[in-house]
Every structure is written in C-alpha cells, then in structure tokens.
Amino acid sequence: MTALAPGVVLGVPVWLAVCALAALFCILVLVGFFAAMILRRVNERDIPEALLGLSHVISSMCGLLPWGKPTPPPALPEKPATEAEPSAAPTVVLVRAEPAAAPIVLPRDPR
Fold it and tell me: Does residue 43 carry a pLDDT above 80?
C-alpha cells in the first residue's frame, strides 16, 4: 500500500476539498433561501408554477457544479383562455353580371 501525503484526501488537497464543500453548501443554502422566500409569498393556487420555476433555477445552478449538466426543464403550462374571441360577422358577396364591376360585400342581417 502506498501512503498518501499529509494534507491529501482521496488524492485532492484538503484545502481544495474544503473549498469545494463550502461552495456546495453555499449553493444549497442559496437555493433553499430562495425557495422559502418564493413559497412563502406565492398564492396557494400558483404553487405548481412556482415549483416549476424553482426547478428552472435549480437546473441552471447545476451548471455551476464541475460535474453538473443543466437539463432543460419542462415549459410552463399555458392557462386556458377564459374569454372566447367574438365570432366574425357573416357576410354576403353579391356578384353582378357585368364583368367590369367589382364584387360588393354587404353584412348579413342577423335576424
């Protein structure tokens, strides 16, 4: 067996391992802080969208890790339209027998 040099853990200097652990801890605290702040202020009916937004944040923060690979999270769901568009008024096209005349468009009486 080979003895490791003092100040080395798993082939990594101790100071570097401590810095990496401190950075990971800061990232976790930052995500937890934002999650708590957002979930405390969001309306109860908007919690699914807030959690989906937090998944976007967590995914993007994974890019800060050396082994992390951010994945594109799913898109936000679209809310159904509550108001329908008004339907177009029906039209009637009259064409004259004269070839030089342009067609006349008149709105149909809705009776």
Answer: yes
Query: In this structure, what token pair is assigned to residue 10?
Result: 């798993």
Amino acid identity, residue 51?
L
The answer to whether the CB of 103 falls within 8 A of the CB of 95 is yes
Positive or negative CA dihedral for 43, 44, 45, 47? positive
Q: 36, 15, 29: which is closest to 61 by C-alpha?
A: 29
pTM of the shown model: 0.47
> What mean pLDDT do residues 75-100 have?
70
* CA atoms in the 13 A half-sphere facing the CB of 88: 3
